[in-house]
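Usage example:
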Amino acid sequence: MKIFHSKQIPEIDAYTIKNEPVASIDLMERASLKLCEWLIERYHQEQSFKIFVGPGNNGGDGLALARLLSEANFQVEVYLVKITRHLSADCQMNLDRLKIQNSSSISEISSLVDLPIFSKGTIVIDALFGSGLSRPLDDLVKDIVKTINDADVEVISIDIPSGLFGEDNSSNDLNNCVHADYTLSFEFPKLSFLFPENAECVGIWETLPIGLHPAVIEEMESPYQLIDENYIRSLLKTRLRFSHKGTYGHGLLISGSYGKMGAAILASKACLRSGIGLLSTHIPRLGYDILQTAVPESMVSIDRSDIIFTEYPNLENFDAIGIGPGIDIKCNSIRALEELLEECDKPLVLDADALNIIGANQEMKKYLPKGTILTPHIKEFERLFGECKGPFDRNEKQRNFSKKQSVVMVLKGAFTAITDENGRCYFNPTGNPGMATAGSGDVLTGIILSLLAQGYSSLHAALVGVFIHGLAGDLAADEYGEDALIASDIISFLPQAWKRIKS
Ligand SMILES: NC(=O)C1=CN([C@@H]2O[C@H](COP(=O)(O)OP(=O)(O)OC[C@H]3O[C@@H](n4cnc5c(N)ncnc54)[C@H](O)[C@@H]3O)[C@@H](O)[C@H]2O)[C@@H](O)CC1
Ligand SMILES: Nc1ncnc2c1ncn2[C@@H]1O[C@H](COP(=O)(O)OP(=O)(O)O)[C@@H](O)[C@H]1O
Ligand SMILES: [K+]
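Running the assembly step on the lines above writes:
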C-alpha cells in the first residue's frame, strides 16, 4: 500500500471526484458511513458520543457522522469550535443537514467555559483538524485538546489526531495534539503513524476504504509504502526438484565473542531455518565446542583469537557474508572489519557491533560495498548518523544515505523501515512488542544472510527477511504471549512462517 504525503490527498480526492465521478459531498458521506459502520460494530446504544468539530472537511466528516449516528439511535452531542466564521463548503452543508435532522444537540465553543463535563464512559470523536492542518494549533484549540487529553474518556480521531502533521512533527509539541486511543484514517495511513515517537498520539490506527480512484493511486508517485504478505509472496524463489545444497548458497557468518556466543547460535540457527544450503560460522576459539554442539548443521571457522573476531577466512568460498552479532568492538576487530569491507565483493549484511564499529570510525562508511545491507536499531542508527531532529528527519537521513551510498538500510523497530538505493522506503507491518527482547536482531541477521546466499537481491533479502522475522514473531506471540517470548521462539516459528508464505 502506498503512503501519500498529506499534500497529495486533495489531488487524489479531486481526481476521484472528477473521474468516478462523485460529488465531493458524497465522497464525504461515503467516508462518514465507513466511520459510522466502524463505531456501530464496536459500541452499543447506551454509550454517548461527544463530537468535536473544526471548520474544515475533517469537521465536515464529524458533522456527517453525527447525523448518521443519530439516525442509528445513538446519543450525540456536537461541539463546533468557533475559530473562524467561515466553514468549508462541505462542512457547512453537513452542519445544515444536521440542523434539519434536529436530533443531536449542537453547541458552539468559543472559550474554555463552553466545554462540557466529560463523564466516564463518554466517547470523544476528534474531528477538529485533519490532513489540512497547516500550522500548529492556536491557543483555544490547544486548550480544548489538553482538556480532552486530561479527561478519562476514550478518544477516536478521524483521519489523524488533531494537531499532528502527517509527516514532519519536529517543530510540533505532541502535548498539544490529541492523544487518541484509535485513529481511523481514510484509505491510507499517514507517514507519521509509522514513527514510534508519535504512537502516544495515534494510538491504534486503522484505515477505512472510501473508494478513491484506483487509477490515480496507481499513477501517483510516492517514495513510501507499507508492504504486505502478497507483495512478499511475489518476491519469493521456489526450490527446484533437482536442486542440491550448492544451489542455495554458502554463507559466512562472523559472530560471537567471549560472553556473547549466544548471538552466533541464534543467528546461525535462524540462517539454517531460512533455506540456506551451507553455513560456516566464524567464531573465536573459545566458542568451538559451544557452536558445534548447539548448531551441528553449521561448519565452524575458527579465529586465531580465543575471545574476539580478528581475522576472516578466504571470502572466495562464500556467496554471502553476515557480520556483527556479538562480535564486540575491540581494536583488532576494528582492523579486521576494515579489511573485510575493503576486500569484500560479496553480498554483505552488517549488524550490531559491526555497525557500532563503523559508528565510532566514521571514515569506514565510505568503504561500504554497494548493495550492503545495514540493520541498525534506532540507537545504532544514531551512532552512525548522529542525533536526529525527529523521526521524519531520521527517515530522510536513512533514505538519503541509502541513495548516496547505494546500500539497503533496515531501521528496526515497530514498522521497520527499509530503504533502497533509489531512496524508496518500505515499512513492514509484521512483528510485535514481544520481539523487543535480547537476541531478536541476531535472528534477523541470520535470516537475511540466508536469503542473500540464496541469490536474493539485497533489497529483496531485506524485505523478505524482515517480513518473515516479524511473522514468525507474531506466530510465536500467538502461542506464548508477548511477555514470555524469547528470541529462540522466533526461530522455532520460522518453519510455520515459511510454510504460510510459501503456500
Ligand atoms: N481522501 C480523503 O482522505 C478524504 C478526506 N476527507 C476529510 O477531509 C479532511 C481534510 O480536510 P481539509 O483540507 O478541509 O482540512 P482540515 O479539516 O484539516 O481543516 C483545514 C482548515 O483549517 C485551516 N487551518 C489549518 N491549520 C490550522 C490551524 N492550526 N488553526 C486554525 N485553522 C487551521 C486551513 O486553512 C483549512 O481551512 C481529512 O482529514 C478528512 O477528514 C473526507 O471528507 C473525504 C475524503
Ligand atoms: N514493538 C515491536 N514491534 C515489532 N517488532 C519489534 C518490536 N520491538 C522489536 N522488534 C523487532 O525485534 C528486533 C530487535 O532487534 P535488536 O534491537 O537488534 O535486538 P537485539 O540487539 O537484542 O538482537 C528487530 O527486528 C525489531 O524490528
Ligand atoms: K482529527
